[in-house]
Amino acid sequence: MPKILIEDDHFLKIVPVILDPATSDKHKRAVCNFFAHDEPDFMGWSQKLHARYPGLAPAQVVFAADQADLRAKITDADAVIVESLTVDDALLAAAPKLKLVQKFGTIATSIDTAACAKRGVQVATLRRHGNIAVAEQAFALLMALAKRIGPLNGVVTSDELEGAGWHVRPRSPHIGYSNFSGITGLKTLFGATLGIVGFGEVGRELAQRARAFEMKTVYFQRTRLTAGDEQALGATYAPLDDVMAQSDYLIVQLPLNAQTRGMINRDRLRRLKPGAMLINVARAELIDRDALIEALEAGRLGGFGLDVGYAEPADPADPLLAFRDRPDRNVILMPHTAIGARENALHDLDELCGNVWRAIKTS
After folding, report:
1. pTM, two decimal places
2. CB-neighbour burial class of residue 332 (10 A; exposed 0-12, middle 13-18, buried 19+)
3. 214, 312, 326, 343: the active-site residue
4. 283 catalytically annotated
5. What are 141-167's pLDDT values in tens digits?
6. Which of 51, 169, 326, 357 could form a disulfide with 56 if both were Cys (CB 3.0 to 4.6 A apart)?
7. Number of neighbours of residue 165 by Cβ within 10 angstroms
8. Which among 128, 148, 268, 283 is annotated as catalytic?
9. Residues of the chain with CATH 3.40.50.720
10. According to the CATH classification, is domain 131-148+185-333 in 3.40.50.720?
């Protein structure tokens, strides 16, 4: 029976339900309920995966809480799946059975690939469909705010336009009829500056999409990329305060921890270019809520899009909800849908399990 050691992660808690028969019924029910709206027979889906990858299941799936735990448990592992933990030569030396190091993402800087090659250990990466979906959601919010799709949706008759405060001009043979009611505040992405705070897996997906729109991308994270990576992604590094000041659109894409909680605070929001739009598809608490409300009330923010709420479901008393009823409707609040349909998760799990199976089969 293969042993698979996995860095502790809420998403990767799905893997033992697929592969490890020792997984508790309570754990299985929770995962099946997670998938039920898009895949009502998750255990049936798992059986089909077993048929595609014969010999992978049953497997023993073990989780590592931290680097020390990874070191303690890797001695008899056949494969290890990591997201942020380090795999170096010393760790590999303690794992004589190891056949695969699977990065749960595409950025493999925490893996010593040369040491893996020297020891005959395969390395695989995974471009996660979930991350792609999150980047798409960020751009959907960004574009909806830029094009004022929320407040203008369905406002197409003369009465509705006039009622919303827009004046319908008569047709003339001397000029076209585009934007015939003179709606203001419409923006174009081409040539605008997108600021990205946090340039990990999702941040880099965002940069690729910004490049397609011919936007200028500036980013901030603790560790600057190499010049080659910046050139490949069409992104320029800047200190955080400079990113705030330059951005027409700002997307915050960081993990939530003690250092990042409230990182976008009152002072930093004041540094934003007036009228800039702010998008958060990571964690709400990265942005100080009181400071955010102040910036929206003062009109310094041109718009705000949020996918993951300060509470889920939202507290009916959340002051952000009041902005839904304002005429400009420049706040979009979503019920944590950025990761998209569960088919994204199923694709990522299938690819991950396939990589493990191929490494074990060919060894």
Report:
1. 0.95
2. buried
3. 312
4. yes
5. 999 999 999 999 999 999 999 999 999
6. 357
7. 9
8. 283
9. 3-126, 131-148+185-333
10. yes
